[in-house]
Amino acid sequence: MPNVKCSVTECKWNNSIECHAPMIQVDRNGSGNASNSDQTKCDTFRTK
Ligand code: SF4
Q1: Ligand 1 site: residues with CB under 6 angstroms?
Q2: How far is CA 47 from CA 8, 35, 38, in A?
Q3: 24 in Cβ contact with 4 (< 8 Å)
Q4: Res. 2 pLDDT band, cuts 50 70 90
Q5: Residue whose CA lies nearest to ligand 1 atom number 6
Q6: Span from the CA of 43 to the centroid of ligand 1 (angstroms)
Q7: pLDDT tier, 1 (very low <50, low <70, confident <90, very high otherwise)
Q8: Among residues of the chain, what percentage have pLDDT more than 70?
Q9: Domain ranges of the chain
Q10: What's the gap in Å between 42 CA and the centre of ligand 1?
Q11: What is the pLDDT of residue 13?
């Protein structure tokens, strides 16, 4: 996977502000079409 910078350090995949998951899935954060990044979310997030 290309380098993914992520500041969600409470995620189990996060190490030194980088994502180390083998792949991530990102979805819309709601039912409508996204028009900015606030309307997307990482579904691969897991608590430590
Ligand atoms: S899985 Fe998502 S939330 Fe977790 S470190 Fe990777 S990009 Fe960030």
Answers
A1: 4, 6, 8, 11, 13-14, 19, 21, 24, 42, 44-45
A2: 10, 27, 21
A3: yes
A4: confident
A5: 19
A6: 8
A7: confident
A8: 100
A9: 1-48
A10: 6
A11: 98
- pLDDT tens, residue by residue, 14-25: 999 999 999 999
Q: What is the C-alpha separation between 14 and 48, in angstroms, rounded? A: 9
CA proximity to 17, closest of 36, 32, 4: 4
* Ligand 1 center to 3 CA (angstroms): 11
Using CA atoms, how far apart are residues 6 and 28, in angstroms rounded to an integer?
17
- Which amino acid would we find at residue 47? T
* Phi, psi at 15, each rounded to 5°: -140, 115
